[in-house]
Amino acid sequence: MSAPKTKDIDPADIEIIEAKFLDAATPGFEAEFTLDEADEAGAFREDALSEEDAKESAVETP
């Protein structure tokens, strides 16, 4: 699994982020990310549905 690339970042930093992703997948292990690492990994990307999109996707049942 590789971290999404949003800006120029040192390849060594990408390796560190990828290692932290693997650590985070270990049950009970609390991987710590710096703010920059979390940002690079996509933690602050807004990808939720808008209110309008949510309303449009609602299924009405009789």
Characterization of the model:
By secondary structure, this protein is an all-alpha fold. The protein has one domain. It is built from 3 helices and no strands. The N and C termini lie far apart (43 Å). Mean pLDDT is 82; it is low at 1-6.
Please give the structural blueprint:
Elements: H1 11-24, H2 35-40, H3 51-57
Task: Using brief descriptors, characterize the structure shown.
mainly alpha, single chain, 3 helices, disordered N terminus, 62 residues, elongated
Helix content: 40-55%
Q: Radius of gyration over alpha carbons?
A: 17 Å
Count of individual beta strands: 0
Give the number of helices.
3
Outline, from the CA principal axes?
elongated
Domain count, please report it: 1
Largest sheet: none
In what range is the share of β-strand residues? under 5%
Helices and strands, in N-to-C order? HHH
Oligomer state equals single chain
Return the average pLDDT rounded to an integer: 82
Low-confidence stretches: 1-6
Distance between the termini: 43 Å
Structural class, from helix and strand content?
mainly alpha
Describe the structure concisely for a colleague.
The chain is mostly helical and 62 residues long.
